[in-house]
Amino acid sequence: MYMAPPYHGHERIFKAARVGNQNGTIPLVGHTSSNLKESIMIREMLGIAEGILQDLHNDHGEVDTLLGKIMDSEDGAERTALFAEMKSKLLPHLEAEQEVLYQRLKAGKSEESRRYGVEGASEHSIAEQQVEKISGLRNPMSDEWTAELKVLQDLIEHHVGEEESTGFSCARDEFTKEQLEAMSQQFRARKARLTTGVA
Question: Is residue 143 within a helix (H) or strand (E), and if so which, with residue range?
């Protein structure tokens, strides 16, 4: 069973990473043999895991950045384009995560894992409905569109906060590090098929 400290927010992790690394980043992919052990040790100290948990964390960061750009934009065409990009990343992420991780958590050994699997799946459904609601609105510069985007942003922020604490903890309790790595491959493959429209 792979155990790591609980995750406490990406801002703190990246700040800590910059302190401990000359170029300001923790190498997340393409490790060289000389820094692999150091990187794994830093990851475990900071609660960052390899495998599907790292994939999910990376996706969360991308979506969060895009939502921030949309909110900051004062141009309707730019908002529309950024929203389309965000949607193309978020929806495949939600579906692949549902199939690869949440279904397994729902069948987990612990009551907490099973409960979180159901709760997380429900939150996914609400986020998907909110995305579709925004997609049906015509004017991305309207107060209504902006308000509905803020609702989506808040939903995702809440979901990510729980997922990267409770959900990641449940996954670490339920699965070995090797299983998390295998799930990463399944998640990436499924997300790629969904992104290209191949079910």
Answer: helix 143-162
Tokens at 172, concatenated: 């670490």
Convert 130-165 to b/e letters by CB count within 10 Å (16 or more is b).
bbeebeeeeebeeeebbebbeebbebbeebbeebbe
CA distance 108 to 138: 43
Q: What's the number of CA atoms in the CB half-sphere (13 Å) around residue 92?
A: 21
- Residue 29, token pair as written in the block: 């992919």
Does a structural domain hold residue 164?
A: yes
Is 20 part of a structural domain of the chain?
no
- Is residue 19 in some structural domain? no
What single-letter amino acid sits at 139? N
Q: Residue 50's closest CA among 170, 172, 191?
A: 172
pLDDT by residue (tens digit) across 18-63? 333 333 333 333 333 344 445 445 555 555 567 999 999 999 999 9
Range of the domain at 143: 50-195
Q: How many CB atoms lie within 10 A of CB 41?
A: 10
Number of domains in the chain: 1
b/e per residue 108-117 (b: at least 16 CB within 10 A)? beeeebbebb
Task: Tell me how long the chain is.
Answer: 199
- Tell whether 25 is covered by a domain: no
Assessment of whether the complete model's pTM goes beyond 0.70:
yes
